[in-house]
Each structure stands twice: as structure tokens, then as C-alpha cells.
Amino acid sequence: MDEIASDLLHELNQPLVAIENYARASERLLTTESCDLNDVREALQQISAQAMRAGRLIRRLRTRG
Amino acid sequence: MIPHSSDRRATVYVVDDDDAVRHSLGFLLKSAGLPISPHVSAQEFLAAYDAAQPSCLVLDICMPNMSGLELQQQLNLRRAIIPVVFITGHADVPMAVEAMRGGAFDFLEKPFHDRELIDRVRHALERDAGNRGLRDAHQIPGRLKCLTARERQVLRLVGTGKLNKVIAADLGVSRRTVEAHRAHVMEKLGVRSLAQLVRIAMDLEHPH
User: Fold this and answer.
1) Which of A33, A36, B18, B179 has the greatest number of C-beta atoms within 10 Å?
2) Which of B132, B128, B130 is nearest to B190 (CA)?
3) Contact A46 B18 (CB under 8 A)
4) Residue B105 belongs to what domain range?
5) Global pTM value
6) Per-residue pLDDT tens for B8-50?
7) Are residues B59 and B110 both part of a single domain?
8) Of B94, B111, B138, which residue is a domain's last?
9) Do B122 and B24 have their domain in common?
10) What pLDDT was estimated at residue B45?
11) pLDDT, tens digit (0-9, with 9 covering 90-100), for B46-93
């Protein structure tokens, strides 16, 4: 695997880690009594943004052919 | 008055150059009730780091400019006792070995479970509290030397469990004077509670 592909794969790991963190944090928030749904909404927006980021990176990997 | 560590809430410093990873780590730790202080770079963290504050550090190992390992070296040079939990993108054995040799508290490979991170961070904070207790205890003998003969006398009498008015009568001074001496002793030793003061006074009489 060439270096650029390796960098892109490393880059791809970042949004996946972020998505995992936001999802787990949301689960935690929803089990607490004083849960603020605005926090959960923020996490969901971030999850969506990070999924888009991962998608863009995959497109870049593909177009390199 | 020298602040006592237990009076301040412990902070989790999070240092990662990736905005999403840093923000999500902070978000996760906050959801577990942990106060966080996020920083985008090692330099920014060093500028904000307060050694007096009980804390631990969640640190990305791969960062531009100053890497996590370089930051660890900087902290070691400064004799900072902050426990470091490293986060790495891929299993790199030489890097892990270097981090552990540098005194890393723990090492987590991405992706990790939220429980793993939160447990390790909590353990790191416990370690920090333990380190601080030891360090503060080591400082007491040095600080005792700063006491005047009279203050030392008052401290010994406090250790015998005598009330201020009894100590005052023993020394032939007013109760106010005894209270002032006691306040000075506590300030010089960096002690906040009477319980701590009594323990130090008792150790003075009967060293371990």
C-alpha cells in the first residue's frame, strides 16, 4: 500500500472514532435522569457530519483508482 | 494560603489535533461527568497546564509540530507528575514501548470502547490524587523548618489534643495569640483542616 493510501486510511479512522464516541456518549446521556436532549441532538449532528467526512474520504480513495 | 489539592475538582486534559476526535472525546468524558479541558496542540496544552490542579492527560500520540511522545518528554523534563493516557491510531509497538518507558499511565488503540477510556481516565485521576498525597506529605518536613520556635511549640500542644484555651494557659499567653499561631502554622504547612494539622503534630511526636 502506498503512503498516500495509508494516510487516507489513517484519516478515515478519525471520523469513525468520533462517530463511536458521540454514539456512546448519547447512550450514556439518555440513561441519565437529567438528560438534556439538546446535547443528544448535538451528538447526532456531529455523527452525521463525521459520516459525511468519511464518505468524502472514501470517494477520494476511489478516484485515485 | 496554599491551596489544598482535594479542594479543587480534577480536570481531564484532552490533547488531539483532529477537531472531531478531540470534540467527541470531550463530549464522551463529559457525558460520564468528568470535567474536561480540550487543547488542539501540545503547545497550547503546555501554555494552559496548571500543575497545581489535580488532573490527567488524554493524549494523541501522532500530532504535527510536537508529537504526543515529545510532549511527554517535555512534561518529564518539567518533573510534571500528570498521568498520561495515550491514544494511538494504529498498533505501533516501538511507539508504545517508548511511551511506556517514558512513564505513560496507559495506552489505548483506536477504536476503543467508551468504558475502556472512561475507566482508564478514572484510574489515572486516582493515581494523580495518590501522587499528590505523597508529594504533599514529602513537603511537610521542609515546611516544618519554616516554623518559629513558638509555632512549633503550639503545634506540639495541638498534637496532644489540648484546646486552645488550655494551650494558652500552658504558654501563659492569650487564647487569641494561640489561635493566631495556629493559623500561621496551618498556612506555612499548607494545611486546611484541623484533622490534618493534628495528624502532622502527632507524627512529630511519634515518627513512623
Assistant:
1) B18
2) B132
3) no
4) 5-138
5) 0.72
6) 579 999 999 999 999 999 999 999 999 999 999 999 999 999 9
7) yes
8) B138
9) yes
10) 97
11) 999 998 889 999 999 988 888 999 999 999 888 888 999 999 877 677
Does the interface predicted TM-score (ipTM) exceed 0.95? no
Check whether residue B68 and residue B150 sit in a common domain: no
Question: Looking at residue B51, what DSSP letter applies?
Answer: T
CATH number at residue B121: 3.40.50.2300
Question: Are B121 and B188 in the same domain?
Answer: no
Query: Where is pLDDT greater, at B1 or A37?
Result: A37
For an interface test with B, give the residue of A9, A24, A35, A53 to mutate (most B CBs within 10 A): A24
Q: What are the distances in angstroms from CA B203 to CA B31, B141, B208? A: 42, 11, 7
**Chain A contact present for B91, CB below 8 A:** no
Write down which residue in B95, B113, B138 finishes a domain: B138
The domain locations on chain A are 3-63
Burial label, B102 (beta-carbon count in 10 A; 0-12, 13-18, 19+) = middle
Chain A nearest C-alpha distance from B81 (Å): 28
